[in-house]
From TrEMBL:
Catalytic activity: 3'-dephospho-CoA + ATP = ADP + CoA + H(+)
Biological role stated in the UniProt entry: Catalyzes the phosphorylation of the 3'-hydroxyl group of dephosphocoenzyme A to form coenzyme A.
Biological source species: Komagataeibacter diospyri
Domain of life of the organism encoding this protein: Bacteria
CDD domains reported in the protein's UniProt record: DPCK
Biochemical pathway: Cofactor biosynthesis; coenzyme A biosynthesis; CoA from (R)-pantothenate: step 5/5
Subcellular location, record wording: Cytoplasm
Protein name per its UniProtKB record: Dephospho-CoA kinase
GO biological process, alphabetically ordered: coenzyme A biosynthetic process
Phylogenetic placement of the source organism: Bacteria, Pseudomonadati, Pseudomonadota, Alphaproteobacteria, Acetobacterales
Gene3D superfamilies to which the protein is assigned, alphabetical: P-loop containing nucleotide triphosphate hydrolases (3.40.50.300)
Keywords: ATP-binding, Coenzyme A biosynthesis, Cytoplasm, Kinase, Nucleotide-binding, Transferase
């Protein structure tokens, strides 16, 4: 079984790319969805989060506004939150990979925003970075209406720079043009995953598998 790592910064179009891969029948581990489950009412991460940020968990429910404000204003809180979440996500990822191997999957996708930051790229056969111009990235996040411009700047500043991700990528999916072009690039990637030939990977913008 081969593992494809999928990553990209906030607002880069990673979720769209992941949805296209999943629609094509590729089994996918969604780190964001895993975190959401851990932070859902009475989720496994809430007791530790409540101790880290007093007042952020009440009656088994996370106050995301309180947690976000604390994390963005304090590097210590952010580090503590990562120390809680990352091991839990890693264990969930390991269970996913084990099940996929047992089921005989040829390829699986690990959709992980912090792929490089957590060292998860080391278990991947190929890494795909989803990228877009900074102006488009910012517009996309602003349209979601969940963060202020200052909060967006803080999140982007804390993430690995897009240029650094691109340097470590085997394949880059450019999402700043059009959805049609994104779909075309993902189709080339799927063809390379299926065929595995040097020519197919070159057409996808990558190296032979």
């Amino acid at each position: 079984m081969r593992i494809l790592g999928l990553t990209g910064g906030i607002g880069m179009g990673k979720s769209t790319t992941a949805a296209l891969l999943k629609r094509a029948g590729i089994r996918l581990f969604d780190a964001d969805a895993t975190v959401a489950a851990l932070q859902a009412p009475h989720g496994a991460a809430l007791p530790a989060i409540g101790r880290l940020v007093p007042g952020s968990v009440r009656d088994g429910v996370l106050d995301r506004t309180v947690l976000r404000q604390a994390a963005l204003s304090s590097p210590t809180v952010m580090q503590g939150l990562e120390a809680i979440i990352h091991p839990l996500v890693r264990r969930a990822r390991q269970r996913f990979v084990q099940r996929a191997r047992r089921d005989g999957c040829r390829w699986v996708v690990l959709d992980i925003p912090l792929l490089f930051e957590t060292g998860a790229e080391r278990i991947c056969d190929r890494v795909v970075v989803v990228s877009a111009p900074a102006s488009i990235q910012r517009q996309r996040v602003l349209r979601r209406g969940r963060m202020t411009p200052a909060q967006i700047d803080a999140v982007i500043a804390r993430q690995m720079p897009d240029a650094a991700r691109r340097r470590q990528a085997d394949v880059i999916i450019e999402t700043g043009l059009s959805r049609h072009e994104t779909v075309r690039q993902v189709r080339r990637l799927l063809y390379a995953m299926r065929e595995g030939s040097p020519a197919a990977w070159a057409a996808a913008g990558g190296k032979p598998a």
